[in-house]
Amino acid sequence: MIDRILIVEDVAQSRAFMTGILINIFPKAEILEAPDMRSAFGLCERHQFDLALVDLQLPDGDGYGVLRKLDQTQDAVTAIVTTAMGSDSAIVAALSAGAQGYLLKSDPPELIASHLRQIPNGTPPLSPAIARRVMDHFRQTGPNVDDNASLTRREAEVLSLVGRGLRVSDVAGALELAPSTVSSHVKSIYRKLNISSRAEAAYQAARLGLLTDERPR
């Protein structure tokens, strides 16, 4: 359920554009706006958000700081980058800072809306151009994964949900496990797959065919 949304964007026209899309998709959600990093930090301290759209270029800092602040202060936010920056360095930095999706402002409005509409289903929103760059990046620089590094059925379930952007507490609720148990599974998965970030987990979940509508059997 998306009840409260944060838009971090310094350009008023872009804020209005995103607000219009969000109102159409989530008509009952409260939408708060921040034109700079300082305002975003203040809102993060006072509110809990379900969804945050964050531009990377801000007048008093950058969106990476906002992403880290969201990760520190929010219990279950889905943080999505909305930007004109599509370089490999920007993408990797954003994912490392906690972004769970990455949309380009140059995408057609209907495509942006389609991606945002899928968020409640657990589908990470990625612009097509960004998805290709992420896959290419990890093919070139990602670890060589031993396909024989077998995951248990439960680990596959956990990786499937982590790959969709769910946090440990969300995974615990979905699988009816204690958060500490989920954390242990995540550590085991990271060790077996030789990975160390959520972005790599999402890539490996996709590579292993775990990002489907059904849980692994």
Report what the structure shows:
This protein has helices at 12-25, 37-46, 63-73, 88-97, 109-117, 128-141, 153-163, 168-175, 179-193, 198-207; strands at 4-8, 30-34, 51-54, 57-58, 61-62, 78-83, 101-104. By secondary structure, it is of the alpha/beta class. It folds into two domains: 4-141, Rossmann fold, CATH 3.40.50.2300; 153-208, Arc Repressor Mutant, subunit A (Orthogonal Bundle), CATH 1.10.10.10. The strands form two sheets. The protein has a five-stranded parallel β-sheet with strand order 2-1-3-6-7, sandwiched between helices. The chain has a two-stranded antiparallel ribbon with strand order 4-5. Strand 4 and strand 5 form a beta hairpin. Helix 7 (153-163) crosses helix 9, helix 7 crosses helix 10 and helix 8 (168-175) packs across helix 9. It is globular, with a radius of gyration of 17 Å. The mean pLDDT is 86.
Sequence-ordered SSE layout with sheet pairings:
Elements: E1 4-8, H1 12-25, E2 30-34, H2 37-46, E3 51-54, E4 57-58, E5 61-62, H3 63-73, E6 78-83, H4 88-97, E7 101-104, H5 109-117, H6 128-141, H7 153-163, H8 168-175, H9 179-193, H10 198-207
Parallel strand pairs: 1-2, 1-3, 3-6, 6-7
Antiparallel strand pairs: 4-5
Helix pairs in contact: 2-3, 7-9, 7-10, 8-9
